[in-house]
What does this fold into?
Amino acid sequence: MTSHDTPQALPQDADTDAYDRASLAARGVDESLTFARIAERHLERRSLLKGLALAGAAASVPATLTGFSGEAKAAPAALTFESLGETKADTVTVPPGYKSQVVIQWGDPLFPGMAPFDLNAQTPAEQARRFGFNNDMVALFPLPYGAQPKLGGRFSHPSYLMAVNHEYATGVGQFPDYPIPVSRDATLAPRTLPTRNHVETQMESVGVSVVEINMVNGAWVPNVNSAYNRRVTATTPMDITGPARGDTLMQTPADPTGVLAKGTFANCAGGLTPWGTYLTCEENWDGYFNNRSAVTDATLKTLHASWSSMNNAATPATSTDFTLFWEAYDSRFDLSKAEGVKEPFRFGWVVEIDPYTPGARPKKRTALGRFKHEAAQGVLNASNRLVVYTGDDERFQYAYKYVSNGRYNAANRAANDTLLDEGVLYVAKFSDNGTGTWLPLDFATLNLLSPGKFRNQADVLIRAREAAAVLGATPMDRPEDIEAPRDANWQGNGKVYMVMTNNSNRTTTGTNAPNAANPRASNISGHILEITEADNDMAATRFTWTIFLLAGNPSAAAGTNTSVVWNGVPTFQGPAFGAPDNIAFDSTGNLFIATDGTAPTTPTCNDQVLVTSTVGGFPRQVKRFLVGPAECEICGPLLSPDDTTFFCAVQHPGEDGAVVDRSATNSKLRRTSVWPTGSVPRPAVVAVRRTDGGRIGS
It folds into this structure.
């Protein structure tokens, strides 16, 4: 999620050019199975209907919309706010008639009796009791448990538990005295390791924060006295559940039975369950491990080699922003040590946290597979089976969904505990004719296709990427957020929206040439797909697909790499934007789109939030609702159930600079943002409300 589609030597960033071109052959994937090839063949068929597409666009508007409330609704609420212009201002910009506030920021206390945050006095013990760094996904849980805020109402529900991910730690962006990496200044020598205090404080700065927030005089205010407040970090014990529990690859010297993991980090997006728990996703976890080249076990070395960002033998002399050297003080991050060689298998999972029970141990739910999870949004089908959609955020990886064997029990919360352990994980295969199939990652099937490759179902899920390749799933262009609209009873309506952030490796000729699904060479802007499950059943094994929107510049000429034209039709009208990342719906069906790395498409605008309707044909009408401060990423877009507050997380303001000025001349070592404090850049959660308290957007 933090990655930008420009060349960077950042282990934290899974989106690397070297991996993109080499990994298909290494994984035994036929390039004809990539989404690019399938979509190209699909275009050949669709081009025969090009004239009909132009005529049919206006006729494609459905009369009603279901899935956003308990009953059928008319088209989504009209978007009446004034669309913003482009801006590079170091602030949060919102339309006239709206106001924004910082709800909570990095370092703010979560418990009573704590002093204000001191940038120069950070310690692990202090950070473990404060709001974490680089916030990402935002989720709300009404207080008390079981409360039902009115959908689309004018008056907001007064109290929530807010769960927030903290994706990753940095060095010079977090500590005034952190050793300067080579990537920031190549002239400095000698290089040194970060201190134990740096590393252990970083470990407590990632993971998840849960904090109660209350509406006080028209603003959201954290309640530091709440018994619900907690931190879940890289050192928090958590149960391993599901098919991979106890597997040999999960066993370490510290946990010889493979049932109790230590910590979570690289928490990007996630989701919620109908029974009020939080699903947080471990995404770019591989970059935290070092010394892969020193692994002596041939099998383990091969298994680790498929993770592009896992460090071979990083040293201070070769350090980048994301070379964190955790292994210097915790051997479980050193792959050359017995304590570390299997530790990576215990990451890359979806973690379930119960915000209503602060003492409950988090659970790593292995039935949902191991990869670089971006999201894990739950929805129910008509028979109350739980369905969770999740993407593997790396180019030429896959889109998945999980379907539970059992059914959700609204009357017995505890009875739902096994739904995320007992079920089937599927991976998507896109067909040439605009249809698709969800293929089960099933050991018996895989053993027929590739005898002896996998030991058991646990091995299949630990090596989910390999299993997907064996099944012939379609490698996708960085599937990030995957969201299914749902009503007040958590029922889906058959629609699923799948976000592809960008892919600058799209070439003008050859197997990666432009095609119907990726119509631009050097695709720096990304796109969104719309999936329709067969019979509108979220648990179906077949679907149809189409392009929902091509991000880019509506003014760009057709055929250029920022053109928004697909199959001869502009997909949207409105302000230019690129790199769609996370999405959210309001209660009527409007889609809010947050960007991560929009600059290549809109170099004169910071990352932003756009809004469009989920109904209607091309061109879709898009408006710019929010623009973030300098060098930030906008994460975790979320509407309160009553639509009166829009929440988002502003991650890494001033990313290209430092937390304090450390050079008079080197811009990479100077502060490039002072948001929101006016002096020190601090990631923060923002709430946006109308000045009259009305519905967001309309």
About this structure: The first strand starts at residue 98 and ends at 105. The CA atoms of residues 175 and 508 lie 43 Å apart. The radius of gyration is 23 Å.
